[in-house]
What does this fold into?
Amino acid sequence: MTDNGDGAPLIELENVNKYFGTLHVLKDINLTVSRGEVLVVIGPSGGGKSTLCRTMNRLETIDSGKIIFDGRELPAEGRALAALRSEVGMVFQQFNLFAHKTIRENVTLGPTKVRKTPKEQADKRAMELLERVGIANQADKYPAQLSGGQQQRAAIARALAMDPKMVLFDEPTSALDPEMVQEVLDVMIGLARDGMTMVVVTHEMGFARRAANRVVFMADGQIVEETTPDEFFTNPKTDRAKDFLSKILTH
Amino acid sequence: MTDNGDGAPLIELENVNKYFGTLHVLKDINLTVSRGEVLVVIGPSGGGKSTLCRTMNRLETIDSGKIIFDGRELPAEGRALAALRSEVGMVFQQFNLFAHKTIRENVTLGPTKVRKTPKEQADKRAMELLERVGIANQADKYPAQLSGGQQQRAAIARALAMDPKMVLFDEPTSALDPEMVQEVLDVMIGLARDGMTMVVVTHEMGFARRAANRVVFMADGQIVEETTPDEFFTNPKTDRAKDFLSKILTH
Amino acid sequence: GGDKTYATVLEKVQDGGTVVVGTKWDQPSLGLKKGAEPEGFDVDVAKAVLKEMNGGKDVQITWKESASSNREPFLQNGTVDIIFATYSITEARKQKVTFGGPYVVAHQDVMVRGNDTSISTPQDLKGKRICKAAGSNSYKRITDPPPDGQLDLDAQLVDAANYSECVQKLQGNNLDAVTTDDLILAGFAKQAAASGGQFKVLGQPFTDEKYGVGLKKGDTKTCEAVNAAIKKLWDNGTMKQLQEKWFGGIQGLKLTESAPPAEGCA
Amino acid sequence: MDELIQYGPFLAEGFLENIKLALVAGVISLIFGTVLVSMRVSPTPVLRAAGTIYVNVVRNTPLTLVLAFSALGLSDTLGLTFSTVPRVNSFWVVGLGLAAYTSAFVCEALRSGINTVPLGQAEAARSIGLTFMQSLTLIILPQAFRSVIAPLGSVMIAMIKNTTVATAGGYLADAAANMKEVFDTTGASIPIFLGIVLAFMAVTLPVGYFTGWLARRLAVVR
Amino acid sequence: MSTTSVLFDAPGPRARVRNGLLTVVSIIAVGAVLYGIYRGFDAKGQWEGRIWEPFIRWETWDVYIIPGLIGTLRAAAVAAVLALVFGAVFGLARLSDHAWIRVPAGLVVEVFRAIPLLLLIFFIFYLLPTVMGGGDYAFIAVVLGLTLYNGSVLAEVVRAGVLSVPKGQSEAAYAVGMRKNQVMRLVLLPQAVTAMMPAIVSQLVVLLKDTALGYIIAYVDLLNTGFKILPAAFFGSLIPAAIVIGVIYVALNMALSAFATWLEKRSRRSRKTAAPPVAPPGPAAVPMGPATPGRTALEGME
Ligand SMILES: Nc1ncnc2c1ncn2[C@@H]1O[C@H](COP(=O)(O)OP(=O)(O)OP(=O)(O)O)[C@@H](O)[C@H]1O
Ligand SMILES: Nc1ncnc2c1ncn2[C@@H]1O[C@H](COP(=O)(O)OP(=O)(O)OP(=O)(O)O)[C@@H](O)[C@H]1O
Ligand SMILES: [Mg+2]
Ligand SMILES: [Mg+2]
It folds into this structure.
C-alpha cells in the first residue's frame, strides 16, 4: 500500500454501457479513479475487464453513459481524441511494440511525431526511461530480439515517454514466461510509488497487495465488488468473488 | 504426497542424447520412472523439458542412448511403435484436440480405430471419462466451442481412453486462463491419487507439492537436480535451481 | 511514324514521311526477317512501288510484321500504312480493305512430302489431312463449294498458327498436304531443299490468287497511285526481274508473264 | 447491340468450347494435381524432386508456350493422338496442355492445404496410437481438404479464364478466337466484349461463390 | 536430421529400407519417362545438329532472340511499374473509411480480376484506334491489359498486407496519440511492405509470364521472334526454338521466383514486422497457415 490515491478525480465513468452486437459487455458501469490512485481490476475471463480498460482511451467506443477525463468528456474523434490518448498511456498484454523500429525508436516515435519534441531531447528522455525500466543497454535492438519481460518494460517506457496523466495496463504479465513476471511487476510497483495514476487489469495478487489502493472485481460486465486489496483477498463479500478467488488462489 | 511411486521401473532412459542440428538439447540423460510414480519436470524455458517428454513416446527420435519402456526398448516404427504410443498417453500444452471431431469422437477415436473396441462400448467408456473430468455435458460440442480448461480436460480424457500405462503432460496448464488452471490440476491430482504413472512438465508448485513423488530440475539439456518436492522447494542445492525458484516464487 | 497526320498514305509518301509497311516475316522468298529487315519478293515490290509513288525518290520505311491473321486489324487500326503480304484479293476482303493491284497472280497449288505418291492431283486430297493456317482462307478452296471455295472435297483440317507451322507438321507427318499459293509453297520448298528437306509442289494450279496491296478501306487516292506504280514496274520490266530473282528456276512454277489487269479502287 | 445479336450464335458456339475445355482440363488437372502432390510430399527424395521440378518448370512457363509444347511436342512429335479427326484431336491436346499447366497449381493448393493442418494434430494422432494411414485418412486429409476448397476454387477460376488461350495450342474455335474474328469485321464492339465477359463471369462467379460458401461451411474452427 | 512432418513419422530402419527401394523404383520410372521422350524426339529427328546449329550462332541471338527478349522485358517492366502504382492506389482506396471511395475501388478491382486477360488485351487492342486514332497499339494493349489485371491483383495484396499487420500495432499507435494517417504511414505501411514483398514479386512473375499473350496480337516479344519468325528462317527448327525459348522464360521466371522465395523466408524470419507474409495471390492463393504461429504440416519437408 502506498500513500497516494487521495487526489481529485482524474477519470469518471458514469452509467457506461457497451454492447458487442447483442452481447452486453459493460453494464451500467460507474467508476472514479482519483489522481495518483492505483486501481486493480480483477475478474473471470470474458467479464469485460479489457473492454472497460479500452473505453478509457476510446480504443472502444461506448453506447451510452459518459466518460470524463481530467474534467472534460472524452472527445469523439480527430485531433482532440489523439491529444487525449497521448495523455493516457496504455500497456498491452501482447506488448505491441512497433516491430519495425528499434526499442529507442519505439520510445521516441510518440514524442517526436505527436508532441513534435526535438529529436535529441526525445532521445535523451528515452534513454532516461529505458534506464529506469532497466533495459537501456537494449536500446538499439529490435523488439523481436528481446525477451518478453524486456519487451514489456520497453512498452512501459514507451507509454511513459508521452508523460501521461494516467497509464492503463491490460494484463501486462500474463503473456510472459513465469520467470519474467517479477521484473515487470517491479517496474510497475516503482511507478505506483512515484504517484502515477494507474488502472491495472491483472491476476497478480502480490502486485495488488503491494501497490493497489483499491480493487474492483468485475464479472459479466458488472462491477460486483469494489474495496481495498486486503479486504478483497481476505474477506470477499460476494459468492462470485469467493468462487473466483478459490480458483486462482489454490495453485 | 501420495503413497504410490514404489513399483518396478516402467520407463528407463540411459545416456540419452539428442541434437537439433548442432544444438545439443539432451545431454546424457539418465532417468527412471517407476510404476505409479508421479514425476514433475521443472526448469527454465528452452532447457529441454518438452524434448525429454516427447522422446518418451518417440515423437522425437534420439541420437544415442536407450529408452526402455515396460521392459522393451522403444520400437522404431510401424505397428509396434503405434502400439507403444497407445500405451503412453500424451497431453499437450496446446490441447491438440482433433478440430473437426466432437469431444466424444475425440475420445472414442483411439479405442475404436486402434483397439477395435465396439462403438457402444467405446462410447460408454468415453462418457464415463468425460464424467470423471467433469465435461460430460459438453460431449457433442466441437473443441473450438469449449473453454481452454474444458479442452484440456477433454484431452486428458482422450489420453485415458486408451488405458495407458503412463501419461505424459507437457505444460498442460500454461496455455490456460488463470481461473481454469485449477480445474485441470484437480483432474491431474485425482489421476495421481488413482496410481497413474505420470511425467508432468509444469511450473505449478501447488501441484508438485501435492501430487509429485519426485522433482527433476532441468536446465541446458541436463538434469541438474533430482529430489523430493519438499526438498526442492525449500532447500534447492544448486545455484541454477535457487536462481530459478527465486524468480518464479516471488509473485 | 512521324508526328504529322496525313489524310492518305500517298500524301505521307510524297511528303517524305516514314511509311509503315506490313509484310510477312516468316515466309521464305516472299517476306522473311533476316537481320534488321525482312527480305523477299513482297519486300522488294513494296520498295519499288513506294519509290515509284514518290517520283523515283527512296522512301523511308518501317517494316512491320503482318501475319495473315492481323492484316485487316492492322489496316483498320492504322498499325501499318500499307500491306504487301501475299494478300489475295477476294470479294469478302474487299468489304474491309481497299486493294491496289494486283501486282502478281499466284495460283493455289498443293505441296506434299517428296516421298508421298498417294497425292498427285488436288482431287486426291479427299480424306487427307490438310493445313488450316490461322487467318488464311486457302483451305476453303478445297473443302467448300463455290463461290467461296472450289473443289468441295471432304478433307480433314489441321489447325496451325501459320504456314511455317504447317510445313513443320507436313515434315513431321502430322498432316498430308499444305495447300496454298504456289509462290508461298515454292518459297518453303526452296528453303527446305537448301537444308535437306524433301517437299514437292504438285504443279497443278487450280485458282488465280491476285496479290493485292492492302490499304485502309476508302483510301482510293493512294490506291490509284499504287496501280499506276505497278503498271510502270511491269512496263519497265522490274516485276519480271524481281520474280526471276526470287522464284527463278523452281520446277513446276508458272510465273506471271504480264501485268495483271487492275481491279479498280473501291 | 445489333452486332451482339448478329454474331451471338457464333460467339456462343466459341464459348461452349471454352466450357468444354474447362471441364476436361478441370477433371484431368485434379487427378494429375493429386498425383503430383503425393509425389511432392512423399518420403522419397527422387519423387519429391521430380514433383518439385515439374511444378517449378511448368509454373514458370507461359501458358502460351505450354500449349504450344503440348501440340508440337506431345502430339506432333511424340505421336500422342486422341482422335483421327484433327479438330477433335486438337481439342484434347489443348485440354491436356491446359490440365498439365493447371495441375501444377492444383498441386500447390493441395500442398498448402496440408500445410494448414497444425503439426500438433498429427502428433496427437500419433500419440494415441494411430498408424500412418489412419492419421492420414482420419485426421490430416479431412482437415486439409476443408482448407483447400477455396484455393482450389481460385485455381479453377483461373483455369476457366485460361481456356481463352487455346489458340496457342492450335485450337481456333473458342470464344477469344471467335471474338477476334468478329472484331476483324466489326472493329472493337463493346457489346460483344461485355457479352463474352459476362458469359465468363456467369461461370466463374458461381464457382467462386460456391467454393467460398462450401469452404466457410466446412471450415475447421480452431 | 530429425524432421517431423505432419505426414510422416521420423523413419526407423525398415522405413529407411522401404524409402530406399521406393527411391530406386522411382529413379527407374522417371528415367524411363525421360528416355521415352528422348527416343520420341529422336525418332522425329529433333536432336539433329542441323536444326540446333542456328542457336550457337551469334546472329540468331542478335537478330531474333535478343530483340524479342527486349520486347518482353520492356512490356513487363512498364506494366510492372504501372501495376504497382495501380495496386497501391486501389489497395489503399479499398481500405478507406469512406464508402464512396471504397466501393467503386472494390468494383474496379473485382471486375478486372474477373476478365480473362487475353480478351482484355484483344479488346483494348481493337478499341484504342477507334478512340485515339491510328497507330501501333500492340505494346500499349499488352501493357494496359497487364496493368489492369495485375494491378487489381496487387491491390488485393496491398490490402491484405495492411490487414495482416496485427491489430495491436495500430492500437498501440493510436494509444500514443497518433492520427489515422500517421498510423498508416509510420506503423502499418512499413510493416505491410515487408509482409507483402514476396507476394508482390510472385505476382510480377505472373505478369512477366503473361507478356507472352502479346504474341497473339503480334506484339514483338520473345515468343514472337523466337518461336514464330526464327523457325521460319531456319527450316525445321521449331521444336529446338520452342525449347530454347522455354528455357529462357523458365530461367527468367525462376530467378524472379527464387527472389520471391528468398524474400518470403526473410520476411518470415524478419524481426521488422509483426505481420506474417501475405499469401501469394492468384491461382496459388491459399490462406496462410494456422492462425497461431506454430509449426505446421510439411515443415521440414523440403
Ligand atoms: N471486438 C469484439 N467483438 C465482439 N465481442 C467482443 C470483442 N471484444 C470482446 N468481446 C467480448 O466481450 C466480452 C468481454 O471481453 P473482454 O475482453 O473485455 O473480457 P476480459 O474480462 O478482458 O477477459 P480476459 O480475461 O479473457 O481478457 C467477451 O465475451 C468477449 O468475447
Ligand atoms: N524441432 C526443433 N528443431 C530445432 N530446435 C528445437 C526443436 N524443438 C526444440 N528445439 C530447441 O531445443 C531446445 C529445448 O527445447 P524444449 O522445447 O525441449 O525446451 P523446454 O524446456 O520445453 O522449454 P519451454 O519451457 O519454453 O517449453 C530449445 O533451445 C529449442 O529452441
Ligand atoms: Mg482481457
Ligand atoms: Mg516446452
Observations:
- Chain E has two domains: 20-48, 57-280+296-301.
- Chain E has ten helices and no strands.
- The radius of gyration of chain E is 24 Å.
